Amino acid sequence: MPTIDQCRGCPYRAPAIGPRGNPASRIVLVGEAPGATEVADGRPFIGRAGEKLWEALAEARLSETDVFITNSVACRPLNPIRPKVRTPSPEAIRACHGRLARDIELHPRAVIVALGVTAVQALTGRRGFPVTKKARRTELPSDWGTVVPTLHPAFVLRRPEDYPILVADLKHARRLAEETGSAGVAKRVPSVPEFRLRFPISKVRFWAKRYSYTDDSEVEAIGESAGKRGWYTRDEFLSVSLWKTDRSKSRCAKNSASTVEEVTEVALRASDERLRIGALTVLQGVEMPTASVLLHLALQTYPIIDYRALWSLGIDPPPAYYSFEFWWKYTRACRALADEAGVSMRTLDRALWQYSKEHQSIA
Fold it and tell me: What angle do CA 167, 173, 174 make, to 5 degrees?
């Protein structure tokens, strides 16, 4: 049984449970995390919850050869303070994200079934998604295509009356897979919206000069130092994170100096864009917007994700979840605008923020 020792920021580092089923299946089922029975057996969904899942799959006319099954977190969650709580932490979900991505990307997929709230979060970034109250045939976007959210089999064991919901969602996933072509690529993968500047490109410098958020000189100096050095120190990281938002101050403070330096060095030196932005979200308290600020200030060719900037580019309301595809398309759109206007990314960011400040009505 392998032990995960390559994950950065993983709070568990326990024996890992691999996937099961058909690796080439166009349907992937993603659960939460292995339990004691799964750890002993070495496969996911063994035991009472597994029996309920296989029962539902059979009723949906699916067998083990028709699906590929993995978990949001590959090892059993450990909570020293509350031992009975086995829900994976956000840090564990982020740390295991690369492994989950590799499991999904083994073969082209048609549809991904999220078994429970934790799986929805791991696949889409949405926390607390109401799987028990969703509409029928709900589909969510993800980096890998369409996600069908449904109930976890363990939940169905506690509420047998909801078993038909699990079966119906599995049947819907099967139909989606049947609708795809031979390549297994989903036909209805949600598209990333187009970005359209709300004011003339010739006015970028005008709006940037009116910028009135705060004095940015301190964080700009921090970013320049971090860029030259190749990583952020913990104090620099905390200052930049606080400049972006004070809501995650306590969570950001939980990161050690070594973790901040190691993770930010990976991000600033990465050649792969998905790794660059994804590495930063391993840090506690860091979601895509704060990660974008860290890149913006240190590398100076990346835009800041902010609801005001998005509004100035025609995105209203902003998405509930920022996927890699959204961030990367947004980055390329902002780079094109900065080039066309003949300004730096910092100048463009100020212009987008200020135009929204003076024109957007916030309810």
Answer: 90
